[in-house]
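The authors assume throughout that readers already know how a fold can be written as discrete tokens. In essence, backbone conformation is discretised, so a fold becomes a row of integers matching the chain in length. A single example would do more here than another paragraph of explanation. For illustration, here is how one protein appears when written out as sequence plus structure tokens:

…
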Amino acid sequence: MAHAAEATGLLERLVGFDTTSRVTNLPLIGFVEDFLRGHGVAPRIQFDAATGKANLHAIIGPRVAGGIALSGHVDCVPVDGQAWRADPFVLRAEAGRLIGRGTTDMKGFCACALAAVPQFVAAGLQRPVHLLFTFDEETTFAGARLLAPTLGAEAPPPAAVIVGEPTGMVPMPGHKGLATWNASVGGVTGHSSRTHETANALQAAAEAVAWLSREQRRLREEGARDPRYAPPHSTVHVGTFHAGSILNIVPDRAEFVFETRWLAADPPGPMLERLRAYLDAEVLPVLRAVDPGIGFTFEERCVAAGLDLPDGHWLIAEAEALSGQPAGARAAYGTEAGTFQQAGVPAIVCGPGHIAQAHQPEEWVAVEQLGACTEMLSRLATRLAA
């Protein structure tokens, strides 16, 4: 369990960096770079000027084909408005739990990967270990989408990627795709008694949200089914809605954010087209009678590919041997694994902690889960040295 103790110490350092997606991750990336260089590993830093953030890609062992990548995102969700009992960016240990923002999602896995670096370096690897640390998984998947096409930039790309999102250390061979949009519509403001001269953006946006609610019901009742997922159908969700200032002023702008988590049989493009057609036919004519220039805009926030390793794929058997666990169910949430698979590198999800503990106040990961993860990485070192 020595590696688990080292992982705990590294997790304390990683949690200490506030890497909420709205701020830069460069201080954490700098710490990881210094740590790796201290063990003789020179990473590649991929800086993204648009966000002021960076990915990190390190190769341990020979620069040959056939290695395995360990991938983790280092950004985390906000703590605003959550009932934390202490500073969420200071790791606490209580009754076998390590508490802090990002402990489960997913700095725990990153800490385990770093704790294994000395063993990887000393193992005499015949095939390499790649370390992939990315940014903005919690918002746009921009980091993985930037990194995935460049995995072969300095050496052959890995043969596969293990994405360490929390699965309780049970290999997960598939998950749904994710697509999210910012939606907005304009209107014409005025006194609420002058409805013949105004165009209510709030009501127009509400009709769009009502259509999305009906679409969610349709998918639940009539959509494609895959019993390996819970729920077994695609879903639609509206997360935020902003409009209006006071009752007697007609709102001239409304905004909302929505998503779909989709099975392969229900891709997001056709749904968006059907929503646009409904709005053009049923909602916008009333607004355009006042102002012909009014329309809806849909800004893509993120489209993340689903993951689907076919039954019998060699990576499933490899992950089962490494983790000591049989492959489990597929997930409704998304990960960067689909992005790597889309780039031509097969991927699977397996990491410490459980998704129910993620994004919560008092987020925690069990010490025994870190132990199980470091044992998996020790087995990986042995297999890649053979």
In short: The longest strand covers residues 177-186. Residues 201-222 form the longest helix (22 residues). The domain at 177-303 is CATH 3.30.70.360 (Alpha-Beta Plaits). The chain has two domains: 2-174+306-385, 177-303.
